[in-house]
UniProtKB/TrEMBL annotation:
PANTHER family: BLR0577 PROTEIN. This is Putative NAD(P)/FAD-binding protein YdhS. Residues 11-189 form the FAD-dependent urate hydroxylase HpyO/Asp monooxygenase CreE-like FAD/NAD(P)-binding domain. InterPro entries: HpyO/CreE_NAD-binding, L-asp_N-monooxygenase_NS-form.
Length: 641
């Protein structure tokens, strides 16, 4: 009697939407590449499979997505350029409608039923409802896997990985390791130990009995020690701040009331602290856009595509992001913006679109402003990326109150613009930014970017600009911010916020560039996620791999000094997701996907019909793993002959 063929064993460390997305691609590609062989997949995650940490059900019901349900999908469609088969499925809003209609069987907690029944395409769902969608996706993927693929789930952490034939993966709750042939890390955002400056602030706080909260995922931080009425300095005005704001106000029993004249009024519970917020820009992220494109369909990318990147790299010398890349990106954004303006709002331009388009394509960067001035009469209809990026730059005010009034008017104007389809050109620029983000890994893969430019301008400034413009909160969150300011529970510290630890006064002291004066507080909160850093990774498995040299931190060569500058990210080969060790050598059977790898991909789910990069990466890695499984089976058969 013949011996059964041993299965190929894969461990997926991180069973959130990215990990399950790869599992879906394994099933989709199995008929072509697995050839009836056996594959065992171990999903390792202390949080529920499908939802993972960020989207788990067990979090505050106040926390919402910053995407509308029509813009959220975990399924490929016919726009996705992949070698494997496309397996379409419902977006979040389509899923909700099918669950309501009873045509789709999904487990939805009773606490979500009212939200599910009322959900519309332009709402912003709670993260708990997204959790139900992702949990259903996980169950669907597992139920539709072909014969020969087995899934084993482990609700625990992976703590150690050692090489060998097979590799050994230790889990936190079992004494013996899993024996696995390949490992895929889908780790999402990387938690990190405090950096040098954060450590100094924490030590200062400890010496003087103050409170300091370093960068972290807001939903996981315990802020219960912050007292009612306490003055709190908050550094950061993005999505982490929005979560913090809700948890420390409505989360402490206050409530927002709709006003008959418009806007919101906040009724305090008395348990709230007083938040003083600042950042480099001094303004919150832009509200999410609430309308659709009205003009001709955009053809993107147009000026920042693979051909443009190849042409850019054909020129000798290092590439500087601001000097060489940003002009192409800014032209891409302007093209989409003006395409929508001309075709959706022709009454606001004074040039035929075909004539404008030809002139735009031929215009050098310095010529675009003159062309736009001739074609677009109203300054408010012109795209000013510098002003958009730093709206408070150079603005000086006499007092905090004067700045607060100006910022309030700025936020009200942003809310109006993001809700008015007359400004749909902004959505054109948004769509172009998504397109640009999909091209960035190809640029990084060339290795031609100047090291300092890549770290400070691409990873720092540009990705920050993307989040600020394209990944902001639901509009209601900014309405709530205004209501909290009106209630005296929020004030604004301005642009270029600075914090010092004053030994003499034994307190934190904040100031900014927008107005004179200082604000003292005994509590300081960093309202942001940690910067990616393998060097400071808090995850025990990543630290072990780093210390052994098996995991490399992405580094780029500074051609001026000869130094290798660390980028903080898990070093991977962008073409196929293989992990690289300290010496830059790819491991044949280890892979990593996620925002903090060299590929710099966005989230695990995305807008439908955008040829989303995460889906393309998932398909590539799944096919690589299936090829390894096939080769393993062939070698196993040969060894038995």
């Amino acid at each position: 009697m013949s011996t059964p063929e041993p299965p190929y064993v894969l461990a997926v460390v991180g069973a959130g939407p990215r990990g399950v997305g790869v599992l879906e691609r394994l099933g989709a590609n199995a008929a072509e590449l697995l050839g009836g062989r056996r594959l065992v997949v171990h999903l390792v995650d202390p949080f529920p499979a499908g939802a993972g940490r960020v989207w788990r059900y067990e979090q505050s019901p106040l926390l919402r997505m910053n995407s509308m349900p029509e813009d959220v999908t975990v399924f490929t469609d016919d726009t996705v350029k992949i070698d494997g088969p496309v397996r379409p499925g419902p977006s979040l809003i389509e899923w909700a409608r099918q669950v309501r209609a009873g045509t789709l069987d999904a487990e939805v907690d009773d606490s979500l039923r009212a939200e599910l029944d009322a959900l519309q395409s332009d709402h912003f769902p709670t993260r708990r409802l997204q959790s139900a969608y992702l949990a259903w996706f996980h169950r669907k993927v597992c139920s539709e896997l072909p014969d020969g693929i087995e899934v084993v789930e482990h609700r625990t952490r992976a703590v150690r990985l050692e090489d060998g034939e097979p590799q050994s993966l230790w889990l936190e709750d079992r004494p013996d390791p899993l024996k696995v042939d390949a490992v895929l890390f889908t780790v999402g955002h990387l938690d990190a130990e405090p950096d040098a400056r954060e450590t100094e602030l924490a030590e200062f706080a400890a010496r003087h009995d103050l409170a300091y909260y370093p960068a972290g995922y807001t939903a996981d931080v315990d802020y219960s020690a912050i007292g009612a009425g306490e003055t709190v300095l908050v550094r950061g005005f993005g999505l982490a701040f929005v979560d913090l704001m809700l948890l420390l106000t409505e989360g402490r029993g206050g409530r927002f009331e709709e006003q008959a004249c418009g806007g919101l009024k906040y009724h305090p519970s008395g348990a709230e602290p007083v938040l003083h917020i600042g950042s480099r820009r001094g303004v919150p992220y832009h509200a999410k856009i609430g309308y659709r494109l009205g003009g001709k369909p955009l053809q993107l990318p147009r000026f920042f595509d693979s051909y443009a990147i190849e042409k850019l790299c054909a020129v000798p010398g290092r590439i500087d992001f601001r000097r060489d890349v940003w002009p192409l990106i800014s032209k891409e954004l302007a093209w989409a913006y003006y395409s929508e303006l001309f075709t959706a709002h022709p009454e606001r331009v004074r040039m035929d679109f075909a004539v404008f388009a030809d002139a735009f394509a031929d215009a050098a960067p310095g010529e675009l402003d003159a062309l736009v001035a001739r074609a677009v009469p109203a300054p408010d209809d012109r795209l000013d990326l510098d002003r958009l990026d730093r709206p408070m730059a150079g603005s000086k005010f006499g007092t905090a109150e004067e700045f607060g009034k100006e910022l309030r008017e700025y936020i009200e104007a942003d809310l109006g613009r993001r809700a008015d389809a007359e400004y749909s050109a902004d959505l054109g620029a948004f769509m172009a930014l998504l397109s640009v983000l999909g091209q960035i890994p190809a640029l990084v893969q060339t290795g031609r970017l100047d090291a300092a430019s890549q770290l400070s301008e691409l990873d720092g400034w540009f990705l920050g600009f993307f989040s600020y413009f394209a990944s902001g909160p639901p509009p209601r969150r900014l309405e709530e911010l205004l209501a909290l300011q009106e209630a005296g529970l929020v004030s604004f510290l301005g642009a270029e916020m600075r914090v010092k630890s004053d030994e003499e006064r034994r307190t934190f002291v904040a100031s900014g560039a927008s107005f004179p004066g200082e604000t003292e507080a005994r509590t300081l909160v960093e309202a942001r996620l940690p910067e990616p850093s393998i060097e400071r990774a808090s995850d025990v498995l990543l630290r072990q791999l780093r210390d052994s040299g098996a995991l490399g931190e992405e580094a780029v060569l500074d051609t001026v000094t000869g130094d290798r500058l660390l980028a903080g990210r898990i070093h991977t080969r962008v073409s196929d997701g293989r992990m690289l060790d300290r010496e830059g050598r790819p491991h044949p059977r280890r892979f990593a996907l996620g925002p903090h790898t060299s590929a710099r991909s966005a989230g695990a789910f995305t807008r439908p019909r955008t040829n989303a990069l995460p889906f393309r990466q998932n398909d590539i890695v799944a096919r690589e793993i299936l090829r390894l499984a096939s080769e393993f089976a062939a070698q196993s058969r040969e060894s038995r002959v």
